[in-house]
């Protein structure tokens, strides 16, 4: 039998092959070194840069937090934080361990916002999140179009006050919008998830598509629908309250998705999402009043229509008995936003038919808004979103403005009862104490790293501004531009037993007194009582019932405030970002009128009576 054997390579043959390979390597090296485009060696990394680079492994491996701590933070996020932003839902069965391994980006985002009790750990988590955003989203290419990345960015946007004092807010928002736009979450999903988005506009490719890219459509999944609604809510809210451009408008697909979520109600909060979106759309319509080009009559009609929409929404809240803090906060913000635009921007208060009602309704709305915050359990506001903090800042400034203009002698008598119930002086003291109690996460370190330190500072400076403008208003006496009309007959105004302010001890938690003809709200409704208004023929003409508690009056004084509104400092706190406080007086000679050179939060709180 013959067998086939491979020839054995001799040692000389192997040696010659090695020499040939070495010669080829040397030739390649010479070509590379002689090339003008030869790559230069990378510069050495400095020790400081090396120390800032993330080590191998995630935040658990780096021992920033333990896995047990991560489980606790995730459960706290589900129970305390998630109801304030129900657009990203973590299922009850989801654990920190599974989320860490299956959705590491989302896991890190949640850990970075939920660890607000430990400022040092939160700073390290924030830095790791920036690195992961760069790697996964900025440099991720087509792989960045993942729902997980969008959800993680939305969570960090929702609680962005814990991320570098919101310095990356706009960048993160635009990254999230770019992902949503490329995924086409703002429109209906084509049958079969189309990844080649350019196909719709390219007729040469359309004929080669498989059937799964046909014209038949279906809805996005629940998670995608919530995320799309969340982007609109964040983008629209920030754009209206901070006067920016909304780059992610509401579409019919987003609205239909929220309706579908409410009908299916996979989670209890799903039923509120459509109402949140609808209410935000009303807020967008309010802004158009300031830019309305029609006559004053047309603007008045538009104002009445918006009031009607808000009244219908208030009735819904009473009947539905929703317990959504997000929805109630947004509703009261919408009412104050209406009075800001109509009263202070469009100057509709100069119309005798609406000006006094508008001022009184504004004071009522301000009290209802502040009650909503002051009723919160102590320190529960640490779970509030960045949007809710901006709404609170907006509401406090609106309450201060309305309280100031209601002190004008032409309307002081007619607004005294509501101004005393609002008791804005007590509100400022209460806010300073509550927010100041949150300061201290930095321990003995730099308090300026604590976002609540800056919130406390802003509250105090708004208080100082309010006191300064109030003194200027009271010093004016009877304005020359006021009418000397006879006192107004208040047909349906609530009467206080006296015009003495309520006790400073939790006056906002006392029930209204002396109200007649009001409808008792259902349990859980925290909006103000509704008074039955007198018959108003003008309301019949436009098919509405006035939202306010007070009827139209005759012989009303003209309340325009040209001197006050043109005074230096009037617009200052309302035209700057929330954290910019350079607009107010120098406090080097005494902090907030207390003869202190720093905030009381730095050295403890003295006697509350001195505040």
Automatic annotation (TrEMBL):
GO CC annotations, alphabetized: nucleus
Domain of life: Eukaryota
Keywords: DNA-binding, Nucleus, Transcription, Transcription regulation
Biased segments, Low complexity type: 46-55
Compositional bias (Polar residues): 477-486
Compartment list: Nucleus
Annotated spans, Disordered: 34-57, 477-497, 592-611
GO molecular function: DNA-binding transcription factor activity, RNA polymerase II-specific; transcription cis-regulatory region binding
CDD domains, per database record: fungal_TF_MHR (cd12148)
Name the UniProt record assigns to this protein: Transcription factor domain-containing protein
Provenance organism: Bimuria novae-zelandiae CBS 107.79
Lineage: Eukaryota, Fungi, Dikarya, Ascomycota, Pezizomycotina
């Amino acid at each position: 039998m013959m067998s086939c054997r491979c020839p054995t390579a001799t040692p000389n043959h192997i040696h010659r092959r090695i020499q040939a390979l070495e010669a080829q390597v040397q030739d390649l090296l010479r070509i590379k070194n002689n090339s003008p485009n030869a790559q230069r060696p990378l510069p050495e990394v400095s020790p400081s840069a090396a120390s800032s680079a993330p080590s191998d492994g995630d935040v658990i491996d780096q021992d920033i937090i333990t896995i047990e701590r991560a489980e606790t933070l995730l459960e706290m996020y589900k129970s305390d934080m998630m109801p304030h932003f129900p657009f990203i839902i973590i299922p009850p069965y989801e654990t920190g361990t599974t989320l860490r391994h299956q959705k590491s980006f989302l896991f890190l985002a949640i850990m970075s916002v939920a660890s607000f009790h430990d400022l040092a750990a939160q700073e390290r988590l924030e830095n790791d999140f920036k690195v992961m955003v760069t790697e996964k989203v900025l440099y991720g290419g087509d792989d960045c179009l993942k729902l997980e990345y969008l959800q993680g960015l939305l969570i960090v946007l929702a609680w962005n006050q814990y991320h570098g004092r919101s310095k990356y807010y706009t960048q993160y928002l635009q990254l999230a919008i770019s992902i949503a736009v490329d995924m086409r979450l703002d429109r209906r999903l084509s049958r079969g998830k189309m990844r080649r988005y350019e196909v719709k506009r390219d007729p040469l490719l359309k004929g080669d598509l498989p059937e799964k890219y046909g014209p038949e459509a279906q809805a996005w999944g629940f998670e995608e629908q919530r995320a799309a609604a969340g982007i609109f809510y964040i983008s629209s809210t920030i754009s209206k309250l901070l006067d920016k451009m909304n780059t992610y408008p509401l579409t019919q697909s987003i609205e239909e998705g929220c309706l579908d979520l409410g009908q299916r109600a996979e989670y209890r909060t799903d039923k509120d999402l459509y109402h949140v979106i609808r209410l935000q759309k009303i807020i967008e319509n309010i802004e158009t009043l300031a830019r309305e080009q029609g006559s004053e009559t047309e603007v008045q009609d538009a104002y009445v229509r918006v009031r009607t929409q808000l009244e219908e929404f208030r009735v819904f809240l009473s009947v539905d008995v929703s317990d959504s803090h997000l929805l109630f906060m947004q509703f009261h913000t919408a009412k104050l936003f209406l009075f800001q635009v109509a009263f202070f921007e469009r100057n509709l208060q100069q119309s005798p038919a609406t000006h006094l009602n508008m001022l009184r309704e504004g004071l009522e709305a301000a009290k209802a808004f502040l009650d909503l915050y002051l009723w919160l359990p102590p320190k529960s506001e640490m779970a509030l979103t960045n949007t809710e903090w901006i709404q609170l800042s907006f509401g406090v400034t609106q309450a201060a403005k309305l309280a100031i203009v209601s002190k004008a002698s032409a309307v002081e008598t007619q607004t005294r009862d509501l101004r005393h119930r609002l008791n804005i002086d007590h509100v400022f003291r209460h806010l300073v104490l509550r927010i100041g109690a949150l300061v201290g996460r930095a321990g003995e370190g730099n308090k300026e790293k604590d976002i609540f330190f800056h919130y406390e500072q802003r509250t105090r400076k708004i208080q100082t501004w309010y006191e300064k403008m109030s003194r200027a208003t009271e010093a004016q006496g009877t304005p020359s531009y006021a009418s000397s009309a006879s006192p107004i007959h208040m047909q349906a105004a609530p009467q206080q037993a006296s015009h003495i302010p309520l006790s400073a001890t939790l006056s906002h938690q006392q029930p209204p007194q002396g109200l007649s003809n009001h409808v008792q709200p259902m349990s859980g409704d925290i909006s103000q009582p509704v008074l039955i208004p007198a018959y108003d023929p003008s309301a019949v003409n436009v098919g509405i019932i006035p939202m306010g508690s007070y009827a139209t009056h005759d012989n009303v004084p003209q309340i325009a405030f040209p001197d006050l509104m043109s005074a230096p400092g009037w617009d200052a706190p309302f035209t700057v970002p929330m954290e910019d406080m350079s607009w107010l007086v120098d406090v080097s000679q005494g902090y907030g009128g207390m003869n202190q050179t720093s905030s009381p939060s730095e050295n403890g709180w003295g006697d509350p009576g001195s505040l």
